[in-house]
Amino acid sequence: MKWRGISTSNYSQRFQNLFLKEAFFEAFAGKMDMPVLGMLTTLGWLNNKAAGYPLGGSLEFSRAMERRYMGLGGEIAYQSRVVKILVEKDRAVGVRLADGSEHRADWVISAADGHTTIFEMLDGKYADKKIRGYYENLPLFEPLIYVGLGVNGTFNDFPSSVGGLNFPLAETVPLGGKEVNRLGVTIYNFDPSLAPPGQTTLKVMFPVNYDWWKTLAQDPARYRAERNGSWTWWWLFSTGAFRAWRPRWRCVTWPPR
């Protein structure tokens, strides 16, 4: 195929326009390089209305499936952590919960991540060399700091984007063992169910160095201070990077307590 074996970072270098080159790299290759074919597939889904953002977020999406499943007579046991998948003659026949109880079933479908399912629930007994290679050799997704904020404003003058906006910072700031020069922000003003009228929620994510945080955790006081990051947020929202936002900056709580 034409795009097989080409990464988005390599493809970004084909742009002659410096702005387009940087914009493409930040949008599709900045946090984790991906195949161009994967990018095109995602864009194709979006164009065909086969993918998108569910109003209400992932919780409302889950609740819709819950309502449908229970409406068909299904039963759900919440707060019931599965620790093992029961196997007989190489066939999954049920699960064992953290409280020790066992439940049999005709079909067992794991919605947990692959590593937990394969190496913990199944004790790694069904992992061949190829499967182990996925977890031992492939690069990890870059660790992130995730910050969720409630703000007094809707930012309707900013472009609406489910994928978020990416701002260059006026200065490089050290954060979590890395030098950060851009800030990715998702403004959820396109989903009115997430905040009261006239307010909205923001999601901000920063790439960080996991080993740096792991070492810092040996000093609990420094770890808490860095994690809270009060100095970092003061710096970000008092500089030109967010000058347009400062008049509307006020933390709010939603839902009301």
Short recap of the structure:
The chain folds into three domains: 40 residues, no CATH class; 79 residues, no CATH class; 105 residues, no CATH class. It is built from nine helices and seven strands. Strand 1 and strand 2 form a beta hairpin.
Keywords:
alpha+beta; single chain; 257 residues; globular; four-stranded antiparallel sheet
Topology:
Elements: H1 8-12, H2 18-28, H3 36-47, H4 57-71, E1 82-88, E2 91-97, E3 102-104, H5 114-121, H6 129-136, E4 144-151, E5 165-175, E6 178-187, E7 200-207, H7 210-216, H8 220-228, H9 230-236
Antiparallel strand pairs: 1-2, 2-3, 4-7, 5-6, 6-7
Structural class: alpha+beta
Largest sheet: 4 strands, antiparallel
Based on CA inertia axes, which overall geometry fits? globular
Q: List unreliable stretches of 5+ residues.
A: 238-257
Q: How large is the share of residues in beta strands?
A: 15-25%
Radius of gyration: 23 Å
Range of helix content: 25-40%
Number of helices: 9
User: How many separate domains make up the residues?
Assistant: 3
Number of strands: 7
Average pLDDT, all residues: 83
| Spatial strand order of the main sheet | 4-7-6-5
End-to-end CA span: 55 Å
**Helix/strand order:** HHHHEEEHHEEEEHHH
